[in-house]
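Record Putative endonuclease, 83 aa.
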Amino acid sequence: MYTGVTSNLTKRMYQHKSKTFKGFAAKYNCEKLVYFEAFDSINSAIEREKQIKNYKRYKKIYLIEKENPNWIDMSDGWLFYFD
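=>
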């Protein structure tokens, strides 16, 4: 499972799906969005990212399944147009 922070979720999903960057997400084929949270400040988002990264796997699974029990790709159907 990949946990990250971004200011543009649509663009980040495009990058993951197209494997624009070689790294963890590309190596492990992380291209399905199953959970996300929105924040008003980047500092709050980074704080939450660190918290989730420290969770054990079972706790991450619980977090996902509470909102998305079937692990549906929440970015399915998004249009990706970037320069």
